[in-house]
Design a protein that fits this description.
The chain has eleven helices and nine strands. It is of the alpha+beta class. It has two domains: 93 residues; 235 residues, Bira Bifunctional Protein, Domain 2 (BirA Bifunctional Protein, domain 2), CATH 3.30.930. The strands form two sheets. The protein has a seven-stranded mixed β-sheet with strand order 1-4-5-9-8-7-6, sandwiched between helices. The protein has a two-stranded antiparallel sheet with strand order 2-3. Helix 1 runs parallel beside helix 4 and helix 2 runs antiparallel to helix 4. It is rod-shaped, with a radius of gyration of 45 Å. It starts with a helix and ends with a helix. The mean pLDDT is 92. Bound molecules: phenylalanine. Phenylalanine binds next to strand 7, strand 8 and strand 9.
């Protein structure tokens, strides 16, 4: 008769320990505790029934039952400990930083090809004693055209397709525009200063243009101006020759040919011999052997008069470089529109 309760305790023990082994979370562990050690738990039932037993069995089952109780309690707290530890480790693993992973690569910025060449151009002229000055992109008709020897209605204005600012003055005229070239800066600079002058004036210019591979509605120019007593065309040639050799190589030749710009007299178009084929003819120079790089000339006496300089005392030269053409030639870029449409595949190459 004593064996019945003993067997019961043995069953409880083996069943409880077996189940405990399969438990993986704290919720199941709590259920386990309720099943065996809770108020209505199987072991608790046995211990509660002790008073009903004959005295000698009571002692025996009592002590076995209490041993089992403390065994189960001990196993419970061990299991609880190990589950909590495992839980903590899992959480750490999920949220922690793996220092052995390679980091995100930092995207380094690059210099835009225009900026790169502009800096080189500025350095070259600075080394020859030229100042560097910037001016407004929204300009008056009077600076962009009139002061440069192109009064209203002058046919030479058609050389620059103009974007006008939508603003009319009291005469019903539109006097404001986006500068079509950097030449108005010549006027602004001469108005502020007396000769001698040696200055370059880089910046953006705008044209009302149907864009294609060689035409953009916005691009850069670098204007140059030198005014002093006794400046001649030889100074212009020498300066541009030096510039061409510093930028395109020591063995460069330059070619001057007549051209027309209303604000210079005489006006010239300047070309260098092709730095790829050295004049033989190739795809960079279009088979010609020469590459046009800028317009230039001796400052027109009327322009000097406009700013109050005496053309009998002072002479000077001016030039205007189309900047993008230089990196296009140097890097073999075949479409000017690539410069400003912000395509990283293009910009990353410089
Ligand atoms: N401003 C002229 C252009 O845009 C270039 C130029 C500048 C020509 C200075 C002569 C002297 O075409």
């Amino acid at each position: 008769m004593g064996t019945e309760n003993t067997q019961k305790l043995e069953r409880i023990q083996s069943e409880a320990l077996e189940k405990l082994d399969t438990i993986n979370d704290l919720k199941d562990l709590e259920n386990w505790r309720v099943t065996y050690l809770g108020r209505k738990g199987t072991l608790t039932q046995v211990l509660r029934g002790l008073s009903q037993l004959p005295i000698e069995e009571r002692r025996d089952i009592g002590s076995r039952g209490n041993q089992l109780k403390s065994l189960l309690e001990q196993k419970l707290s061990e299991k609880e400990e190990s589950l909590k530890q495992a839980d903590l480790e899992r959480k750490l693993e999920e949220s922690s930083i793996d220092v052995t992973l390679p980091g995100y690569s930092i995207q380094l910025g690059r210099t835009h090809p225009t900026t790169k060449i502009l800096r080189q151009v500025c350095d070259i002229f600075a080394s020859m004693g030229f100042e560097i000055v910037e001016g407004p992109e929204v300009e008056w008709d009077s600076y962009n055209f009139e002061a440069l020897n192109m009064p209203k209605g002058h046919p030479a204005r058609d050389m620059w397709d103009t974007m006008w600012v939508d603003y009319t003055d009291e005469n019903g005229e539109r006097p404001m525009l986006l500068r079509t070239h950097t030449s108005p800066m010549e006027i602004r600079f001469m108005e502020r200063r007396d000769p001698p002058i040696r200055v370059i004036m880089p910046g953006k210019v705008y044209r009302y243009e149907a864009t294609d591979a060689t035409h953009e509605s916005m691009f850069y120019q670098v204007e140059g101006l030198a005014i002093d007593k006794g400046i001649t065309m030889a100074d212009l040639k020498g300066t541009l020759y030096e510039f061409a050799r510093k930028l395109f190589g020591e063995d460069r030749k330059i070619r001057f040919r007549c051209d027309y710009f209303p604000f210079v007299e005489p006006g010239v178009e300047v070309a260098i011999d092709c730095f790829v084929c050295h004049g033989e003819g190739c795809s960079v120079c279009g088979g010609d052997g020469w590459i046009e790089i800028l317009g230039a000339g001796m400052t027109h006496p009327d322009v000097l008069r406009w700013v109050g300089y005496d053309p009998d005392v002072y002479t000077g030269f001016a030039f205007g470089i189309g900047l993008e053409r230089i990196p296009m030639l140097m890097y073999g870029i075949d479409d000017i529109r690539l410069f400003y449409n912000n395509d990283m595949r293009f910009l990353k190459q410089f």
